[in-house]
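Case 273 in the screening queue. Each case pairs one protein sequence with one candidate compound; here the compound is S-adenosylmethionine. For every case the pipeline is the same: read the inputs, emit a complex structure as tokens, and attach any notable structural observations.

Predict complex for case 273.
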Amino acid sequence: MQKPPSNAYHDFTEYLQQKSGITLGSEKEYLVNSRLKHIMFENGIVKLDDLLKQLKLNSNLCSRVIDAMTTNETLWFRDSHPFEILKNRIIPELLKANKHSTIRIWSAACSTGQEPFSISMAFDEYKNKHPNFNLNFNTFATDLSSKVLESAKKGIYHELAIERGLSKSAKQKYFTEMDDGYWKINTEMMKNVKFESINLKDNLSRAGQFEVIFCRNVLIYFTNELKREILVKLHKQLKPGGYLFIGAGESMLDLSDYFELIHFKPGIVYKKK
Ligand SMILES: C[S@@+](CC[C@H](N)C(=O)[O-])C[C@H]1O[C@@H](n2cnc3c(N)ncnc32)[C@H](O)[C@@H]1O
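Case 273 output:
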């Protein structure tokens, strides 16, 4: 029979949920212990209770704990269809509307940068096929975790990470080889991407207005209530008729007053109503 969760674990899950929205079930005590053991050891903390007390006094420790509790799994061109829809449907539609000099895109849980840099590559691929293309774009790439943002800003990846989702030709075209199996993404792919820390739980109006938002594979960590709140806030940050991509395994809840589900073969996207 499974051991009931400790009081300290219960208090920790409440703390984490309040800070990040990340919701952990009662069966995840082992996960918390394994993800926090190094931080606790380095800070001479033995019990979770004591860590909680320290967290209230030490914002640096708090940020390290949040970093440790986020799941940052990502890859290049994840699920492929959002990038195909961007190139084959959304860019041509925006060009036709002819009222945009710069398209603003938000990668709202960007992890180590694969998503926003895949967007840069999608634009580059489009440009190569359409030499008269005259649209600028900016990607605002944000995450709660300072650790992944630091790594994304460097644009340096081990070859094992590069090979997850990226073709050999894209690797040669968009990266420069460094030492010890590391590759750096070219400046051209970085220059339109701006990284910043934003917690999706917070007021999102400072992010500004966007034609397209990618908010993928992060809502799964939240309660339905918080997920709904965030989706309504994202709706506000979309320009009229703007598009929202969520993760392939994520659902929209009942927000049909806010978004229209559009089937673009081979995938779906939500359009602001
Ligand atoms: C699994 S990754 C998804 C990365 C990318 N969007 C993708 O689909 O490949 C989830 C990211 O969400 C971030 N995250 C978790 N809670 C967050 C919050 N409250 N606000 C902003 N980002 C958050 C994590 O730090 C992590 O980098």
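Case 273 observations:
- The pocket of S-adenosylmethionine is lined by residues 20-22, 70-74, 78, 109, 111, 115, 143-145, 148, 199-201, 216-218, 221, 247 (CB under 6 Å).
- The domain at 81-272 is CATH 3.40.50.150 (Rossmann fold).
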